[in-house]
Write a structure and sequence with these properties.
The protein is mostly helical. The chain folds into three domains: 192 residues, Up-down Bundle (Growth Hormone, Chain: A), CATH 1.20.1250.20; 55 residues; 239 residues, MFS general substrate transporter like domains (Growth Hormone, Chain: A, Up-down Bundle). 84% of the residues lie in helices and 0% in strands. It has 18 helices and no strands. Helix 2 packs antiparallel against helix 8 and helix 10 packs parallel to helix 15. It starts with a helix and ends with a helix.
Length: 512
């Protein structure tokens, strides 16, 4: 009898421990997801605060660009290095250090008294952000060891990250309506305090690469590789000096060759190149990169179409994009559930197929009747892209040893940064080429200074039309809007084709 009682008591104790362990896991995930929400919220809030802080600080156009760009430049440049640092010193330790640094830098940025000072603290925020992003993903790999729970956790993390992007403009608008521009930076401070206090208690420390040090030369080479390439693509996207942009990209690619050579030679590389021998890892990374390229390029052109062709103001354009934001959240939250039914490879392929379908709808957009098709197409593409985006991280994590989780997360996020830069610059350049080619016959027939300006961009065409007589101005705008819509059709068609190709690759290489 006593033996039966002891067995029952032991079983009860085991169940209690399991409940406690499970609760601790999900509380830890809540802390990590809060970090993701805050990071994405912090980025999107600044866009609304820029006009007010520029006027207050007297920032020039160039300084405004640096205020926006320095964060993403530094973040992208340090992701790989900080991912490796977390693998070596412990991701929990690095996360807490980064949270303190992010909070302190946010306070100094909020009370900056000059453009240069704000640019400096934005750079510090970029470094701190680079410690937080790979650390959160690496810790998810440590906390959730089985495939199903890891996929669910990553889906929740992505939902919070995308949710921050979606509600950022709304939160920013409310803050800036009642407070000064510095409140956009102070928003994150209490959350970072909460992260440090709660995270210290509930987050486990990750496995470390004992005895391994971060190779300083590799860290410097990674910066010299990533920063010039992203800077070059951003210059192309904003219509800067093409020669300087090409030189920057060339310099970055040269550093990339040196970086790869060094990783092959040293004993403890910053990036473990042997990971690329795994077809699953390489395919997942390619899906992440190409998805970023296509979606960034199409989204960039869509916002212009909504304002310059559909004639919506910025608020109206943002409201019409809300269905796509909701679709993003639905896709990220449902990907793990769908994958459990269909399997990872099929779910990723299905998501990419939905993306291709959405972009196919884009190819039918016309200047006079395209708003509904654009919203439908962007919503389908947004839902579809979240299925593979959420799962690629899980696939990459499972393809690598646990002690490399931080490096894997940083590679994934760096590929995302590259995807956005290449998508806006590359597909933006393709759209410009098609736009000019379509408008060239009209410009040749109605040669004037106005049509010359119109060939540069749709915004230039709208501005030039305001200086022309009524009928001539309307004809120019109509021709330019038609040319721009054609360029959007072409870019979307190319994106749909790329998604079909990647879907086939996912179906083939991620079947198991």
């Amino acid at each position: 009898m006593s033996t039966t009682t002891e067995i029952a008591a032991a079983s009860t104790n085991e169940q209690t421990l399991e409940i406690t362990r499970s609760t601790r896991q999900w509380v830890a995930l809540a802390v990590l997801a809060l970090t993701a929400l805050l990071l994405s919220l912090d980025v999107s809030v600044l866009y609304l605060a820029l006009p007010a802080l520029s006027a207050d600080l007297g920032a020039s156009t160039t300084q405004q660009l640096w205020m926006l760009d320095i964060y993403s430049f530094v973040l992208a440049g340090f992701l790989v290095t900080m991912g490796a640092v977390g693998d070596r010193v412990g991701r929990k330790r690095l996360l807490l250090i980064g949270a303190v640094a992010f909070g302190v830098a946010s306070v100094f940025a909020a009370y900056a008294s000059s453009p240069g000072e704000l640019v400096f603290w934005r750079a510090v925020l970029g470094v701190a952000g680079a410690t937080l992003m790979p650390s959160t993903m690496g810790l998810i790999r440590t906390i959730f060891t089985d495939e199903k729970s890891m996929m669910t956790a990553i889906g929740i993390w992505f939902s919070c990250f995308m949710g921050g992007m979606a509600v950022g403009p709304l939160v920013g608008g409310l803050l800036l309506q009642h407070f000064w521009w510095g409140s956009a930076f102070l928003l994150g401070v209490p959350f970072m305090v909460l992260l440090v206090v709660v995270g210290h208690r509930v987050l486990p420390e990750s496995e470390r690469q004992s005895g391994a040090r971060v190779d300083l030369a590799s860290a410097l080479l990674s910066l010299a590789m990533i920063l010039p390439i992203i800077h070059g693509f951003k210059e192309i996207a904003r219509g800067g000096d093409r020669a300087i942009a090409a030189a920057a990209v060339t310099a970055g690619l040269t550093m990339a060759v040196l970086f790869i050579r060094r990783q092959r030679r040293i004993e403890n590389p910053l990036v473990d190149l042997t990971l690329f021998r795994s077809r699953s890892f390489s395919t997942a990374l390619a899906v992440m990169l190409i998805g970023g390229v296509v979606m960034a390029g199409v989204s960039f052109l869509s916002t212009q179409w909504l304002q310059l062709v559909a004639g919506l103001d910025p608020l109206g354009a943002g409201l019409w994009m809300l269905p796509a934001n909701v679709a993003l959240l639905l896709g990220s939250s449902s990907s793990a559930m769908i994958a459990r039914r269909l399997g990872t490879g099929r779910t990723m392929a299905a998501g990419l197929g939905i993306c291709a379908t959405g972009l196919a709808a884009y190819t039918q957009i016309a200047p006079a009747a395209g708003l509904g098709l654009l919203v439908l197409g962007m919503s389908l593409a947004s839902f579809g892209i979240m299925l593979p985006s959420t799962l690629t991280m899980s696939v990459m994590m499972q393809s690598a040893p646990p002690e490399r989780a931080g490096s894997v997360a940083s590679m994934s996020e760096t590929s995302g940064e590259f995807g956005v830069a290449v998508g806006v610059a590359g597909l933006g350049s393709l759209a410009t080429f098609v736009y000019r080619d379509e408008l060239a016959p009209y410009a040749a027939e109605h040669a004037s200074s106005g049509t010359t300006v119109a060939l540069d961009s749709l915004a230039g065409a709208v501005q030039a039309a305001s200086t022309l007589p009524g009928a001539a101005g309307r004809e120019l705008v109509t021709a330019a809007q038609g040319a721009f819509t054609t360029s959007l059709n072409v870019v979307a068609g190319l994106g749909a084709l790329l998604f079909v190709v990647v879907a086939v690759a996912a179906l083939r290489f991620l079947r198991h």
